[in-house]
Amino acid sequence: GENVEQHPSTLSVQEGDSAVIKCTYSDSASNYFPWYKQELGKGPQLIIDIRSNVGEKKDQRIAVTLNKTAKHFSLHITETQPEDSAVYFCAASLKGGRGGSEKLVFGKGTKLTVNP
Amino acid sequence: EPEVTQTPSHQVTQMGQEVILRCVPISNHLYFYWYRQILGQKVEFLVSFYNNEISEKSEIFDDQFSVERPDGSNFTLKIRSTKLEDSAMYFCASRVGGRDEQFFGPGTRLTVL
């Protein structure tokens, strides 16, 4: 089955710097790659996603890139702010089951700390 | 903005007891999911549900687990006889038909003593 690896497990940056989190996936059939932000005590919140027919997507300070050949995708956060501090999870969607269940397979998460 | 809601936020139970975790998905969504997250670990898929039946389930989702959509709004996860290793955060998620995005609820923290 699909396996998603995520690095680094922790990342500490100064406010205003950029942060990059990288993920690799194993199943070339996966075609949807969301990123979630999880704050303490809350559920994962979708922040950006990308589909396999697109190489890059940007939303204000957040961007995601996808390299299908290498089977890796990355989250880029520019001009980081203290409120960006959270755990970030990447995921890959594997179509399967009746009705296209499209379960998400998650990476282990990256704890991002933005220091003021 | 519509949100997925879950109750209770925290459930404490004794080993061997039955628990029911409740979720109210976003109203026009058609696909429903349960995931769990053991403390400090990754979020793991448990089960997906569509058109009143299970679409897919993981190895974790054994005979002790069941899901139900008893009415037009609620989606429940039942654990018949809880084990210590069932202690985790349980997240409900939902998705509208024709789109990929899954929206997660705030979770229920289950503690089995």
What can you see in these coordinates?
The complex is a heterodimer of chains A (116) and B (113). Chain A has 116 residues and is mostly beta strands. In chain A, 0% of the residues lie in helices and 56% in strands. In chain A, strands 2, 4, 5, 9, 10 and 11 form a six-stranded mixed β-sheet that branches. Chain A has a five-stranded antiparallel β-sheet with strand order 1-3-8-7-6, with no helix packed on it. The mean pLDDT of chain A is 92. With 113 residues, chain B is mostly beta strands. Chain B has no helices and eleven strands. Chain B has strands at 5-7, 10-13, 19-24, 31-37, 43-50, 53-57, 65-68, 75-79, 88-95, 103-104, 108-112. In chain B, strands 2, 4, 5, 6, 9, 10 and 11 form a seven-stranded mixed β-sheet that branches. A four-stranded antiparallel β-sheet of chain B has the order 1-3-8-7, with no helix packed on it. Chain B starts with a strand and ends with a strand. The mean pLDDT of chain B is 94.
Tertiary shape of chain A: globular
Number of helices of chain A: 0
Q: How far is the N terminus from the C terminus of chain B? A: 37 Å
* Helical fraction of chain B: under 10%
Identify the quaternary structure here: heterodimer
Order of helices and strands of chain A: EEEEEEEEEEE
- Number of extended strands of chain A: 11
Biggest chain-to-chain interface with counts:
A-B, 28 and 27 residues
Structural class of chain A: mainly beta
The profile of the biggest β sheet of chain B is: 7 strands, mixed
* Low-pLDDT segments, ≥5 res of chain B: none
Query: What does the largest sheet of chain A look like?
Result: 6 strands, mixed
The average pLDDT value of chain B, as a whole number, equals: 94
Radius of gyration of chain A: 14 Å
What percent strand of chain A?
over 45%
Quick summary:
The complex is a heterodimer of chains A (116) and B (113). Chain A has 116 residues and is mostly beta strands.
What is the topology?
The complex is a heterodimer of chains A (116) and B (113).
Chain A: E1 4-7, E2 10-14, E3 19-25, E4 32-38, E5 45-51, E6 56-59, E7 62-67, E8 72-77, E9 86-94, E10 103-106, E11 110-115
Parallel strand pairs in A: 2-11
Antiparallel strand pairs in A: 1-3, 3-8, 4-5, 4-9, 6-7, 7-8, 9-10, 9-11
Chain B: E1 5-7, E2 10-13, E3 19-24, E4 31-37, E5 43-50, E6 53-57, E7 65-68, E8 75-79, E9 88-95, E10 103-104, E11 108-112
